[in-house]
Write a structure and sequence with these properties.
InterPro entries: DnaJ_C_subfamily_28, DnaJ_homolog_subfam-C_membr-28. It comes from Paraburkholderia rhynchosiae. This is DUF1992 domain-containing protein. This protein is mainly alpha-helical. 62% of the residues lie in helices and 0% in strands. It has a domain of 70 residues. The C terminus is likely disordered.
């Protein structure tokens, strides 16, 4: 195989020296390559067929939805609306994590901090006349 590679390289170099690659259509323009280098070979054809048919994997749809929610969250200043958007983002993030096959178990400390933040926000909204809710931390650590 090395002999064939060397022969190909030699012929390419000779053609370049003769100027055969000058003035090619699209010269200097970036190539449009499909980004499937990280996709296993056995599923590339199936992915390409689905992509050409307009289908995308559920994880990609959820990532797009998360990005859209983040943009919406950045534009919203109302605390109640922000809280609802953050809850939707958390639900989407958890669904995405389950698609990835990630753990459904969260560290207890992380759950406790989330519960504290939600309680603080609920307290702030109650003071301003917003909705109230309670956070049950008895099952902290699992979802």
């Amino acid at each position: 195989m090395r002999l064939l590679d060397a022969l190909v390289e030699q012929r390419i170099a000779a053609a370049a020296a003769r100027g055969e690659f000058d003035d090619l259509p699209g010269a200097g323009a970036p190539l449009s390559l499909d980004d499937d280098a990280l996709v296993p070979e056995e599923v590339r054809v199936a992915n390409r067929i689905l992509k050409n048919a307009g289908f995308v994997p559920p994880a990609v749809e959820q990532l797009r939805a998360l990005r859209d929610l983040q943009a919406e969250l950045n534009a919203v200043s109302d605390s109640a609306a922000r809280c609802r958007l953050q809850a939707r983002m958390l639900a989407l993030d958890m669904a995405l994590e389950s698609l990835r096959g990630g753990p459904l178990m969260l560290p207890r400390e992380y759950c406790r901090r989330i519960a504290e933040r939600l309680s603080e926000r609920a307290g702030n909204e109650n003071a301003s006349g917003g909705e109230s809710f309670s956070v049950d931390t008895s099952g902290a650590g699992t979802w």
